[in-house]
Design brief:
seven-stranded mixed beta sheet, four-stranded antiparallel beta sheet, 15 helices, binds pyridoxal-5'-phosphate
Amino acid sequence: MSFAYGLSLFFMSVIPGAWRRTAAGAGLLAADGTVAPTIFAEMSAAAARTGAINLGQGFPDEDGPAEVLDAARRAIADGVNQYPPGRGSPDLLLAISEHQHRFYGLDVDPATEVIVTAGATEALTSALLALIDGPDDEVVVFEPYYDSYAAAVALAGARLRPVPLRTSDFQPDLDRLASAVNDRTRVILVNDPHNPTGTVFSRDALREVVRLAEKHDAVIITDEVYEHLTFRAPHTPVASLPGAASRTLTISSAGKTFAVTGWKIGWVHGPADLITAVLTVKQYLTYVNGSPFQPAVAAGLRLPDEYFSGAAELLARKHRILGEGLRAAGFAVTAPEGGYFSVADATELGGTDAAAFCRELPERVGVVAIPLTAFVSAENRHSYAGLLRFAACKRIEVLEEAAARLAAGF
Ligand SMILES: Cc1ncc(COP(=O)(O)O)c(C=O)c1O
């Protein structure tokens, strides 16, 4: 987005009445002019009301590594409580660069090619606001998609081009991808490992993303917040594929890797010119955030390999417990290859309308889930109508209880 266009959006938002058009266009307002309620809030309220186990929202219910928590406490005690530098604390920038080299062999200049953001969400929104020039620009996303993507694309004033994942295996359909990307495509947005399906994109799919981005001169934005939570093979960042690094913004976050989702420490790295563009927006969104958490995340990124492999193994075990309960209940379950979520098909249980099914679930079996339609544009909802998303990032005993309730409930 040009700076002038960005400013006009900003001023639109403070002119009485105009903000409503912007917000309504982004799907953020309900018909009565109030903030549109989300299914996540509705389902969490249902969990609180009924005492059901909340497998709706994806946040862990136990603390992450002691080394990381202790480092944050120490930082507060040592007075690391004021604004850090705009790009992020130098030691965290260095730790991110070291981490990308250690795990993926990527070379990232900590001084010019990375910035710390308020979670992956701010990195993503800043990147879109920075790169979109106007309403003719298109952003290709794989559907279903993490719910902030469509809102951020709308706020940036671009057109969303959803490409549905194949319902058979939740992999990208390469023909549909090729026909969606064109010379108006400014950004191809990838989320791998994928929320909500748990898919790890095939190497062929990632290569095709890079080929199409090169052909149509698009930027790849890749959301890799579940990078360390893969169950079959180590994660492959898009930026590590031939031809990708010079046009890719790689986004990740400490929230999932270290079970600190409330800290909202994320980052984005890529070529210096793209990072400069992101910084021009980011400096007026939050400017900076979470100074004492930044050294703590740096400590986390430097933990030994066993921490990272152990976290993935534990999460895989949690998915197995949840999956057994779901299968015993009669759901068809797609075993996830990464991330916090398992997808279950309720069709055989009469759940052809997963949203209605989810609304009944707390009273019926004492478990809360989210319908996949919450992650899908209106025109494609029918393809996902029987599917539910369950979060496996909870304590083993909580998942065992949820699995028992599910198995006994149908
Ligand atoms: C795919 C994906 N991207 C981004 C986020 C948000 O990350 P953060 O809390 O670091 O902003 C989430 C959180 O659920 C997610 O699942």
